[in-house]
Amino acid sequence: HSRQIYSSSTRREQKMEKKREGVMEAMSRIVSDPFYFLHFMAFFSYLPIRSSAAPYTSHRLFDREIQAFLAFLMFSAIKMVREETWEAFVADGLLYAKIFLIAVSLIMDYRVAIWFSVIFSVIYLLAQQPAFSKLGTAKKLTPMQLEDLLSDGSTTKYWLIEFFACSSSKCVRSSRCFPELSITYSNNLLSFGTVDFGLFPNTAAKFGISLAGGMSQLPTYILFEKGVEVSRFPDFYVDAAPSLPITKVYML
Question: Which InterPro entries has this protein been placed in (predicted)?
Answer without folding.
Answer: Thioredoxin-like_sf
